[in-house]
Amino acid sequence: MITASVVVKSKAVATTRNVNIKGGDDEERTEWLPAEQIFTPSEISEDSFLTFYQSSENRRRSFCGRCGTSVSYAALPMPEGWPDMLDIVMGTVDRGDLEGEALRPERMLWWDYGVGWIKDLSMKGMGEVPRHGNHMVNEVVKSDG
């Protein structure tokens, strides 16, 4: 089961300082709930920045009502014979959840619409692309000037 948390409106101030940093002053969050509860429009959506809209018939999307970031997409109901699915934008998921097995992809959808070089990397790997062990690229890459 995947769990998630959303920023509660009453605890969040629309400033850049209000990022939830582990160990920081703004660490208070709502109780962790199953993702199914969070991504179903309900009372939680009225008390958080998670906002929903119906983009077309039987299609529901969510986004952050504070910054506008797209968060999820769902087709409800799914066509007969299809399992229920929820597409979550990977860039909105906490690193700890990405490092576990719960969000490991089972399949790739919309492959024909993918970006060429990203498709190549996903199929062939990184090959000879330089790998930096940390973010200090300036220690590895020397400029000519």
Q: How many domains is the backbone divided into? A: 1
List segments where confidence is low: pLDDT < 50 over at least 5 consecutive residues: 12-26
Record field, number of beta strands: 6
Mean pLDDT: 75
SSE order: EEHHEEEEHH
Global shape: extended
Summarize the amount of helix as a percent range.
10-25%
Main structural class: alpha+beta
Strand neighbour order, sheet with most strands: 3-4-5-6
How would you characterize this protein structure?
This protein has 145 residues and is α+β, with helices and mostly antiparallel strands. It has one domain. 15% of the residues lie in helices and 17% in strands. It has 4 helices and 6 strands. The chain has a 4-stranded antiparallel sheet with strand order 3-4-5-6. The chain has a two-stranded antiparallel ribbon with strand order 1-2. Strand 4 and strand 5 form a beta hairpin. The longest helix has 9 residues. About 10% of the residues have low confidence.
Which SSEs are present, and which pair or pack?
Blueprint (H helix, E strand, L loop, with lengths): L2 E2 L28 E2 H4 L4 H4 L3 E7 L2 E6 L5 E6 L11 E2 L6 H5 L16 H9 L21
Antiparallel strand pairs: 1-2, 3-4, 4-5, 5-6
In short:
The protein is α+β, with helices and mostly antiparallel strands.
